[in-house]
Structure formats: structure tokens, C-alpha cells
């Protein structure tokens, strides 16, 4: 239940951002504060900016990705156990 509520809050944030950006764009088109040729390109700038933001967040996430040496040891143990089980059942497992 908590996951659904949290997910809905995220959707509401995204939708409110889209509505706000759309309303600002419409106001700029109607008011002619910025030349119309520039105003028509604003959605493209927004999409490019959103893509750059997404790449930035992925890069930050990769830089802060934790290393877990304990989990690596457990995973290697599980792999060795699986190889023993499969070789016991007559399946040959070859790895480098």
C-alpha cells in the first residue's frame, strides 16, 4: 500500500510539472514576450534539458554506487555451491 501511495505522489509531481511548464509555454505564446520562433522551440529545449538531467542523475548514481565486498564473497560461495550441485547431477559447468 505504501509503495502505491508513494508512486502516486511521484506521478502527481510529474503531472504538476508538466501542467506548469505547459501553462508557462501557453502564456509566453499568448503574451508575445519572447519572439514566437523562440517560444515554439521551448518544448524541444525542455525535452533536451530533461534528457540531460536524466543523464546527470544516472552519472551521479553510478558514482555513488556502493561496493559490497561481503555480498561478493556470498555470491561467489553461491556460485561454487551451484556448480557442485550441477556437477553432482551430471551437468558439466565450464567457466574461466
List the helices and strands and how they pair.
Layout: H1 2-31, H2 36-63, H3 69-88
InterPro entries: DPM3
Subcellular location: Endoplasmic reticulum membrane
Function: Stabilizer subunit of the dolichol-phosphate mannose (DPM) synthase complex; tethers catalytic subunit to the ER.
Can you characterise this structure?
- This protein has three helices and no strands.
- The model has no long low-confidence stretch (mean pLDDT 82).
- It has helices spanning 2-31, 36-63, 69-88.
- The radius of gyration is 26 Å and the shape is rod-shaped.
- The chain is mainly α.
- The protein starts with a helix and ends in an 8-residue tail after the last helix.
Task: List the main descriptive attributes of the protein structure presented here.
96 residues; mainly alpha; 3 helices
What is the CA-CA span between the terminal residues?
45 Å
> Could you tell me the number of beta strands?
0
Question: Helical residue percent?
Answer: over 70%
**Number of DSSP helical runs:** 3
What overall geometry do the principal axes of the alpha carbons give?
rod-shaped
Main sheet attributes: strand count, strand direction, barrel closure: none
Poorly predicted segments: none
The sequence of SSEs as H and E is HHH
What integer value in Å does the Rg equal? 26 Å
- Percent in strands: under 5%
Backbone structural class: mainly alpha
> Mean of residue pLDDT?
82
Main location: endoplasmic reticulum
Subunit structure: Component of the dolichol-phosphate mannose (DPM) synthase complex.
Protein name: Dolichol-phosphate mannosyltransferase subunit 3
Family: Belongs to the DPM3 family.
Amino acid at each position: 500500500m505504501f509503495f502505491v501511495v508513494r508512486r502516486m505522489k511521484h506521478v502527481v509531481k510529474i503531472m504538476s510539472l508538466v501542467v506548469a511548464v505547459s501553462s508557462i509555454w501557453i502564456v509566453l505564446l499568448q503574451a508575445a514576450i519572447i519572439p514566437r520562433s523562440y517560444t515554439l522551440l521551448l518544448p524541444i529545449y525542455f525535452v533536451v534539458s530533461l534528457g540531460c538531467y536524466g543523464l546527470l542523475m544516472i552519472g551521479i548514481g553510478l558514482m555513488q554506487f556502493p561496493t559490497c565486498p561481503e555480498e561478493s564473497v556470498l555470491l561467489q560461495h553461491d556460485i561454487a555451491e551451484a556448480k557442485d550441485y550441477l556437477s553432482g547431477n551430471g551437468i558439466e559447468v565450464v567457466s574461466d
